[in-house]
Amino acid sequence: MNIDLTGKIVLITGATGQLGRVMARTLSRCGAKVAIHYMSNEAKAQELMDEITKAGGEAMIVQADITREEGVREMRELIRAKLGNPDIVVANAVVQYEWKSVLEQPVEDYVSQFDSCVLQSVFLAKAFIPAMIEKGRGRMIGINTECAMQNFPHQSAYTAGKRGMDGVYRVLAKEVGPHQITVNQVAPGWTISEKDRGEAELHDAAYIAQVPMKRRGEDQDIANAVAFLASDLASFITGAYIPVNGGNVMPAI
After folding, report:
1. Active-site residue, selected from the candidate residues 97, 110, 158, 169
2. Annotated catalytic, 158?
3. Four-point Cα dihedral 116, 122, 126, 128, nearest 10
4. Is 154 exposed, middle or buried (CB count within 10 Å of its CB: 0-12, 13-18, 19+)?
5. How far, in Å, CA of 144 to CA of 88, rounded?
6. pTM score, two decimals?
7. pLDDT tens, 93-136?
8. Nearest 5 degrees, angle CA 184-CA 187-CA 192?
9. Which CATH number fits domain 9-244: 3.10.25.10, 3.90.10.10, 3.40.50.720, 1.10.3720.10?
10. DSSP letter (8 states) at residue 239
11. Cα distance between residue 186 and residue 193, in whole Å
């Protein structure tokens, strides 16, 4: 059984990031045409597109501020003109910031997390789901986090943004389900990616001690989960929050 996305068009926001770039490569290998979104790293976006096209895939790059509705609409028009209307939208981009305690965290960081987690999801839905409704199928996949269940110190802004995102996705799943559109979330744990692969701190004893599988996951593990949810194999899965973290957090019934 193979994951076949031949003929499908996918948008990945934050595709130049550590997890996003592996998603782009993976979905392309599955046959999808990939819209590589970036905010500021144009060089990496171009490099990623060149890598995909050299391997025989089809891709484009598109710059947008995903915290602005106008920026998301402009991105939609650029993708539509070059590739067509996306069948799959992966909300992976998020604003990075320094984590501090609630008492020390600047209010601006809560705003940035709301904008890049909640409003990004809303703007993407408004921009891309109408075309999915016309097709009678589609996939919305949000990249959440295990932090949304952990609520550890210094995670407040990130956790608040991702928990708000979770609410949007669960409601959206019920609203667009009749159109055969699935809406799901993948929640990575502390994942090994290109920036830290092979370094000593990969073996963080304190974190690994909590993980039932006694290791950290790889960026490819996250991309594999996204590819599965994007495919027809997951056509009857919607409204799910799926941790990919070796069992470090386990949603309860």
Report:
1. 158
2. yes
3. 60
4. middle
5. 17
6. 0.96
7. 999 999 999 999 999 999 999 999 999 999 999 999 999 999 99
8. 135
9. 3.40.50.720
10. S
11. 16
